[in-house]
Design a protein that fits this description.
Strand order of the largest sheet: 9-8-7-10-11-12
Helix content: 40-55%
Largest sheet: 6 strands, parallel
Radius of gyration: 22 Å
Length: 366
């Protein structure tokens, strides 16, 4: 959700709109906004109903003459409700985990905003089932791939050099996983699948792209130990956090999304589709909305390293099939998953929210 907010802010500015990112001053979004030269305002939402939070956000709305707040988290969404007299409020929901419905929570979601954006159909359905959203005021705007993922793939020489720089064998079948190194992302399942593939005669390697959370160092060490115990030490590469994600993903032969719980559509799936990179993902959350077996990818049960290995081995041994489905995925991305198209949908939501706010009598901050 942090990357999505940053990308939206940049797109709005690039397309002639005024936009400002409001976030805690000591967090990663703040650091990235400053590094990119994006307009930034410090805002703390730890106590969303505290006078300092409410007055701070209302003051920001007035200073910048904000017409729409797009709140991507739970706490900032609660604080934003205090600005309904000044502007329109849109709340985004990124997480598939159901919200427990209660009278207070229904008030927060139904009366505390003008429109709701769910990043997957399954999230929308759960909000509606819990009575947390008005069907007429909720939209699904899924994940997207930025233009850089649609750029031509690296040449053979560039790919060879990148693999060498990452410590990957030139002829290996490389499976990438791009995500934070957290237990719920299922990296251990992927490592076990790698062991099964190698036992089955496939020269497989695993490329883990992403960093650990602050509290996740022990988990990363556990993954390293697992790889060593399975005899995969040199075949599992921990690439860490990377800014050149399109190039790194293009160095792989397939992308795995072995998540265990709470996965929306996963932003790496549209990115892989745009790169024409075959995808195998867990059949959970919003992933089946994009990854359609035999059409745009493969789905496997979560926690099931045997099924994951079997799907990946099919990719490794039937390259014409893999290329055909990856081409389907690329065409789907071109038609439905472009950044500009998703942002036009977002602007439509903002206009609908502004119209409702006007009917409510919002002053639009002067």
């Amino acid at each position: 959700m942090e990357l999505r907010a940053l990308e939206q802010t940049r797109w709005l500015l690039d397309h002639g709109h005024d936009a400002v990112l409001a976030a805690p001053p000591d967090g990663e979004p703040a650091a990235r906004a400053r590094a990119a030269g994006l307009p930034f305002e410090p805002a703390v939402f730890d106590h969303p109903y505290a006078p300092s939070s409410v007055l701070g956000l209302r003051g920001l709305v007035r200073r910048h003459r904000i017409q729409v707040i797009d709140a991507h988290g739970g706490r900032d969404g609660k604080t934003a409700a205090a600005c309904l007299g000044l502007c329109a409020v849109v709340r985004d929901r990124h997480i598939t985990q159901p919200l427990r419905s209660s009278f207070t929570r229904r008030l927060q979601w139904r009366l505390g905003c003008d429109h709701v954006v769910a990043v997957a159909e399954t999230i929308r359905d759960r909000l509606l089932e819990g009575g947390l959203a008005d069907p007429a005021r909720i939209s699904v705007i899924g994940e997207w791939a930025e233009d850089r993922f649609f750029a031509p793939r690296p040449s053979v020489d560039q790919r060879r050099a990148l693999r060498a720089s990452l410590g990957l064998a030139e002829g290996a079948f490389v499976v990438a996983a791009v995500a934070m190194l957290r237990p719920d992302k299922g990296h251990d399942v992927l490592i076990r699948a790698m062991a099964r593939m190698r036992a089955g005669g496939v020269d497989a390697a695993c490329l883990l792209v992403g960093s650990a959370t602050t509290e996740g160092a022990d988990h990363v060490e556990a993954l390293r130990r697992l790889a060593a115990e399975l005899g995969l030490g040199e075949h599992v590469v921990f690439a860490g956090y990377r800014t050149d994600v399109p190039e790194v993903m293009a160095a792989a032969d397939a992308l795995a999304v072995p998540s265990l719980v709470n996965e929306g559509q996963s932003r790496v799936v549209p990115q892989a589709f745009a790169l024409a990179l075959p995808v195998v993902a867990s059949a959970i959350g919003g992933l089946p909305e994009l990854v359609r077996p035999g059409e745009t990818g493969w789905l496997t049960p979560p926690h099931d390293s045997e099924s994951l290995a079997r799907a990946l081995m099919e990719l490794a041994t039937d390259r014409p099939l893999a290329e055909r489905i990856a081409a389907n995925a690329r065409r789907f991305a071109e038609a439905h998953l472009g950044f500009d198209g998703k942002m036009r949908e977002t602007l439509d939501v903002y206009e609908a929210a502004r119209a409702r706010a006007a009917r409510r009598g919002a002053t639009f901050a002067g």
